[in-house]
Every structure is written in C-alpha cells, then in structure tokens.
C-alpha cells in the first residue's frame, strides 16, 4: 500500500469549482503558519491566488467550515497561484454546506 498523496489528478480538474473569497491560515511543516486566500474550491481541492514559496507536493493542513481540519497537497503552481488537492474527497452534503458558508450570496453560487 502506498503512502502519501496521489498527485496525478488530471481527471479531477473537471470538477465544478465554486468562486469564494476566503482568507485562511494553514499549517505548513517547513514554513509554519501561513496566510492564504482561497479563490475557488471544489470537493477535490482549492486554488489560492497568493502563493508564497510553495512547491509541488508540499502538504498543508487547512481548517474549513463543516469538515474541520483536512490535509491538502500542492498539485501545481503558476506565478502567484497554486492548486491543492484534498487528501480525501469531501462528501457532497458537507461540500454544499461549506459553499453555503463560504459563499453566502446565492447569486454567486453555481447552480446545483
């Protein structure tokens, strides 16, 4: 059985992403606590638009509404953006509750 993140997620890139404006503090083993800004989120991961010195494969622990602490791995970086994959897929009902919390304006939510 393999340990660590499965970083080959090309099929997951098609997952619906929901725009959000969510500042968060994550735990990083090397950098400690860092401030990130989540620009969009899906049940598989999220994208930030203020990437500090993060590299592909880096692991962070993030605290989200509803699901609490969850690990995520950097899948890609480009300029100031970075994409993360959650260690596990968030259940649909929990994900919808997260969206309702992070994006309270129903006009900005994707249709369900």
Concise overview:
The protein has 112 residues and is mainly beta.
CATH topology (level 3) name: Thrombin, subunit H
Report strand %: 35-45%
Largest sheet: 6 strands, antiparallel, barrel
| Strand elements, count | 6
Mean pLDDT: 85
- CATH superfamily annotation: predicted glycosyltransferase like domains
Low-confidence stretches: none
> Into which percent range does the helicity of residues fall?
under 10%
Structural class from helices and strands?
mainly beta
Assign the CATH architecture. Answer: Beta Barrel
Helix and strand succession? EEEEEEH
Assign the CATH class. Mainly Beta
Cα-atom radius of gyration: 13 Å
Biggest sheet: strands side by side, in what order?
A: 1-2-3-6-5-4
Total of helices: 1
User: How many angstroms does the end-to-end distance come to?
Assistant: 36 Å
Count of folded domains = 1
Query: What general outline do the C-alpha atoms trace?
Result: globular
């Amino acid at each position: 059985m393999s340990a660590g993140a499965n970083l080959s997620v090309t099929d997951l890139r098609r997952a619906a992403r929901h725009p959000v404006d969510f500042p968060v503090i994550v735990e990083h083993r090397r950098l400690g606590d860092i401030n990130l800004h989540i620009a969009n989120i899906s049940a598989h991961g999220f994208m930030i638009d203020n990437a500090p010195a993060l590299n592909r494969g880096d692991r962070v622990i993030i605290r989200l509404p509803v699901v609490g602490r969850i690990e995520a791995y950097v899948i890609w970086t480009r300029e100031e953006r970075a994409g993360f994959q959650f260690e596990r897929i968030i259940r649909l009902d929990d994900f919808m509750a997260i969206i309702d919390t992070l994006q309270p304006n129903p006009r900005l939510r994707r249709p369900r």
